[in-house]
Amino acid sequence: MRLVWVLVIGLLLSGCASLGYKSLEDEISDQAKTQAAMKDLNRKLKLHYEAGEQHYKAGQLDQAEVEFKSILELMPEDENALYRMGTLSFKKGQYDAAADYFERAIKVNPRNGKAHYNLASIRLMQAQNHYKYFAALAGKDQDLSNVTTLLGDIDKFNSGGRQTEQSGSLDEIAGALKK
Question: How far lies 89's CA from each of 38, 47, 92, in Å?
Fold first, then answer.
């Protein structure tokens, strides 16, 4: 009877091994393949990043964009590539796309101060445009003193704190927008 139990247990154990359990050699082989794949991925990411930065510094924005998009295809949540795509989009005047990239970079790293600053600057610029439209569409009896002050503060911020000459009064801006 003992022999029967030993055989049953032996068959069960050998059956379990054939039902998806890997041998130690298979585990080691899989780990080696994973490590090799990670090294290859890191090498590709580094090459794309270096090429993208070179193009960016040379002012070749389209080529830089290709490189950073390649990084995002390999690793969609790469904080550096998301941030750089935000700056590239901003430089191309694609403000909504830039804001999206900065928001994605912030989701990856909520402590990315530069992405927060750039996103806030874009939103402030967009708000400025909406305030100008508001002023242009406001009725003649509308008090625009708060809007004028706010627009002046935005201009001051955008100029880095330096006082700049206003391009015209709010009435002139509103008149130009109504045309």
Answer: 30, 21, 5
Number of domains composing the chain: 1
Q: Give the global pTM.
A: 0.71
Contact status, residue 82 vs residue 72, Cβ threshold 8 Å: yes
* CA 164 from centroid of its chain's CA atoms: 32
Domain that holds residue 151: 131-179
Provide the token pair at 63.
């080529």
CB contact at 8 A, 79 and 109: yes
* H helical segments located in the chain: 2-18, 24-57, 61-74, 79-91, 95-108, 113-137, 145-158, 170-178
**Is residue 142 in some structural domain?**
yes
Place of tokens 């809007």: 147
Torsion, Cα 128 131 137 140, to 10 degrees, reads -120
List, for the chain, all residue ranges whose pLDDT scores fall below the cut of 70.
1-21, 161-179
For residue 132, report the phi and psi dihedrals to the nearest 5 degrees: -65, -40
> Is 71 in contact with 59 (CB distance < 8 Å)?
no
